Amino acid sequence: MSQPFVDVLTLGVWQANCYIVGDSERGTAFVVDPGQDGEGPVTKALAARGVTCEAILLTHAHLDHLWSAPELARSLDVGVRMHEEDRWLWDEPGAGIGAAPGNLEAQFGLVWDPPHERLETFRDEHTMTIAGMQVDVRHTPGHTPGSSVFITDDLGDAPVMISGDLIFAGSVGRTDFLRGSWEEEARSIHRVVLPQPDDMRIISGHGPETTVGAERRSNPFVHQIMADLGSPEPAIGKPVTKQRRGL
């Protein structure tokens, strides 16, 4: 009998959520968004569960979500999977937050030396099998061009969306960084999040867990998106003046 689990580690100064998703019975797992100083905590969490990591997945390639991916890819001997549209951030992650090229060490103390041979990019939406689970990959641009969410029905009674910085409890991801787009983010939420069942769990890149139903009822950004994006699709308005989150 399968014993699926999701563990969350909140990492670094940006308090980004890293998820370890796996099955204790199978002894396998995957890691999502290993952020700042995450190598030690992730390695210990995998050992505590007695599971082997099969891959690292990135919802997007901002620094607070991929900081520890290179070290973990090497130490765990696994690949890193992300959307092709965020490849530019894998090559130069500081670009997403306005850091000067090659200046991450001076600004953040990070020597960025990614193992390019371990990077596996995808473009099309698809379903992958990983750690014995079926995981649907949906492209959700807006926060970054390559932002994606991972959806699975294999973690208990309710389906789960690992949303990265697309949507949070009561908020949505920032779009004021380089190549961000509020219009694209609104369309992504309308296309991917809102059609989901109310009981779908959303475990996001920052903050607490929520559900699709809770965000449909109380998230002011979602209310605006539902008002703006009827059928046929009207022009998208500016976001309401509420705090948005995520690096």
TrEMBL record:
<keyword id="KW-0862">Zinc</keyword>
<dbReference type="GO" id="GO:0016787">
    <property type="term" value="F:hydrolase activity"/>
</dbReference>
<dbReference type="InterPro" id="IPR051453">
    <property type="entry name" value="MBL_Glyoxalase_II"/>
</dbReference>
<protein>
    <submittedName>
        <fullName>Hydroxyacylglutathione hydrolase</fullName>
    </submittedName>
</protein>
<dbReference type="InterPro" id="IPR036866">
    <property type="entry name" value="RibonucZ/Hydroxyglut_hydro"/>
</dbReference>
<keyword id="KW-0479">Metal-binding</keyword>
<dbReference type="Pfam" id="PF00753">
    <property type="entry name" value="Lactamase_B"/>
</dbReference>
<feature type="domain" description="Metallo-beta-lactamase">
    <location>
        <begin position="15"/>
        <end position="206"/>
    </location>
</feature>
<dbReference type="GO" id="GO:0046872">
    <property type="term" value="F:metal ion binding"/>
</dbReference>
<keyword id="KW-0378">Hydrolase</keyword>
<dbReference type="InterPro" id="IPR001279">
    <property type="entry name" value="Metallo-B-lactamas"/>
</dbReference>
